[in-house]
Design a protein that fits this description.
By secondary structure, the chain is α+β, with helices and mostly antiparallel strands. The chain is globular and about 40 Å long. The protein has a single domain (2-124), classed as 60s Ribosomal Protein L30, Chain: A (2-Layer Sandwich). Strands 1-2-3-6-4-5 form a six-stranded mixed beta sheet, with helices on one face. The chain has two helices and six strands. 32% of the residues are buried. This is Enamine deaminase RidA. InterPro entries: RutC-like_sf, YjgF/YER057c/UK114. Pfam families: Ribonuc_L-PSP.
């Protein structure tokens, strides 16, 4: 197994990897919208866009991109944030011929109240 830790995103909060490449599978940890300078974007759409950019960076560490993603799993804290998240997901996947599977759950909260969304990905290395 190989840890994936792009320098372009904030370090993990603890002793875990942002992503793990294990054979043909890459699994990411959930990404929150924490910039390397410690700031957090305003609003669920901006946070979700940031989460997707972090996921892109993690996948790129192993030579993958969103066309390799099997599923995105996302978590929001409020029902009214579902549309903002889904719009960001749709932007991230707009150019994909095959859209990944997607799961969205409403949760009671994250490690800090400013966080509104968390997104993780499961990807598969394919022959190209």
């Amino acid at each position: 197994m190989k840890p994936l830790a792009p320098k372009s995103i904030a370090a993990p909060f603890g002793h875990y990897s942002h992503g793990i490449a294990g054979g043909p599978v890459v699994a990411t940890s959930g990404q929150l919208a924490l910039r390397p300078d410690g700031t957090i974007p305003e609003g669920v759409g901006a946070q979700a866009d940031f989460c997707f950019e972090a996921l892109r960076a993690i996948l790129a560490e192993d030579g993958l991109d969103f066309s390799d993603v099997l599923r995105f799993s996302a978590f929001v804290t409020r029902r009214e944030d579902m549309q903002g998240y889904m719009a960001a997901r749709d932007r991230a996947c707009a150019d994909l011929e095959v859209k990944p599977a997607s799961t969205l759950m409403i949760v009671s909260g994250f490690t800090r109240p400013e966080f509104l969304v968390e997104v993780e990905a499961l990807a598969l290395r394919r022959d190209r």
